[in-house]
Amino acid sequence: MPTDSYPADLAHYPVMHTQPIHWGEMDAFNHLNNVVFYRYAESARIAYLQTLGMFDGNMVTVLAQSSCQYLRPVFYPDTLLLGVRCQRLGTTSIVMEYSYYSCAQQTIVATAEAVIVRLDSDGKTKLPWTKEERIRLLALEQKVGHTPQL
Predict the structure, then answer these.
(1) What is the pTM of this model?
(2) What integer pLDDT is reported at residue 4 of this predicted model?
């Protein structure tokens, strides 16, 4: 989806993940189960890293922290647009920010945050982002007028 066709609420998110809601993801109260939001964030995070050319099987990352704020219940049928961007770019970590936009409700229904840490190939030692990776990430964010904290 081109950035000029995003809802205004998502205009400053450089990567968009489209996620249809499936009937089997509903909970006993007939709304989207809370844990499903985390799976959707994972898919959006992978889309972001793929856009940067960083999800090629050579990079090791670990999810260090995640949280989600549920603003409105989501019901089947619906499609969510997950805007994802880098909120803060650290030496070895990225704080990712997500907004979940309901196409049915035409509004943001949840927001989330996750901390991703980059590790070396043995998965034991933190590894800094390269200068080239940092340049690519900042260029991607600047395309939509967003600048992460450094």
Answers:
(1) 0.93
(2) 58
